[in-house]
Amino acid sequence: MTITTFNPPVRTLMGPGPSDVHPRVLSALARPTIGHLDPSFSTMMDEVKTLLQYAFQTDNQLTFPVSAPGSAGMETCFANLLEAGDSVIVCQNGVFGGRMKENVERCGAIAIMVEDEWGKAVDPQKVEDALKAHPEASVLAFVHAETSTGALSDAKTLCALAHQYNCLTIVDAVTSLGGSELRVDDWGIDAIYSGTQKCLSCVPGLSPVSFSERAQERIKQRKERVQSWFLDLSLVMGYWGNDGGRSYHHTAPVNSLYALHESLLMLKEEGLENAWARHSMLHQALKAGLEAMGLSFIVPEGSRLAQLNAVTIPSNVDDAVVRKRLLHEYDLEIGAGLGSLAGKVWRIGLMGQSASASNVMFCLASLESVLNDMGATINTGVALPAAQKATFG
Known about the structure:
It comes from Cycloclasticus zancles 78-ME. By secondary structure, the protein is α/β, with parallel strands linked by helices. The chain folds into 2 domains: 246 residues, Aspartate Aminotransferase, domain 2; 121 residues, Aspartate Aminotransferase, domain 1 (Alpha-Beta Complex). It has 14 helices and 14 strands. The chain has a 7-stranded mixed sheet with strand order 2-10-9-8-5-3-4, sandwiched between helices. Helix 1 packs antiparallel against helix 10, helix 5 packs parallel to helix 6 and helix 12 packs across helix 13. The longest helix is centred in the last third of the chain and has 22 residues. The chain is globular. The mean pLDDT is 96.
């Protein structure tokens, strides 16, 4: 076998992530690598922190990107805030609530589950019932935007309930950061994690996190050391903190951080609320086209994510064949269902740079072509006009 330089195909990424990466961000990756303790790099790190505070809408000083994907951001939150024997109320309405449960149990803590049907938002009444029934609970953990189903939960209400019952909150914002309204300080979120590859349209491999003063105080009061050396915030912040210089902790992914800096700068240039509005508008266009075609969503409209659309697969249509044809014939990627939704839904992403009018039209035309060729029972010739009307009136 002869191995040569890898040249990836050019795809349009409209699955659950990663999303399309803007040429400005790709260009940033190619800039000269410098040392992770270089004074110039330290200046850029301060700017990344400031830009992340803007994206999260927070003044939290403990805000930075973990040098690993969103799953490591999740572990950072749980490993630092939990100790063995703690009780945590965990909300599960999809795959990623289940991963929260895994983290709780691996920390030696006790997971008290609040379960909702996949495709539905977390039910605040169920959460309050659990908080009343378990006064020993010290943390409420939930997914703001459930990537596996496209359901958006009411983070503001859930955080208010948690604080009413003296609980900290851990929030998964992997799919919501930059795409849905998210206000860390105003909503009282104590610990939050996200990923760079979704609505921020950066390359995968970094996980923005932020911790409130309440959360930091909990970490300071730990009785035992954090079980993970790499994710121990008391050590990491010697590098990411900007008081009195930076101490070596690990070799940071220098060029990936260049890319994150550029993607966050682009978000700031667009304006956060403008980005939220763009995702919402393009979701309405995609929705109009899909429904005109005869397809439906599994999530009720009031709690439906704009950037992750879980669409019911027509009967007698092979999920994998459709996705394979879209990939090979149109260079278009959409996602499969996960867990109990495998084979039942497609997950169509509208995230970051992938959230554009041209991508909406391209996705609708490609999907209609493949489904029509496969003999699916759909309405043809109506999806694009419906999307066009929803976008431009």
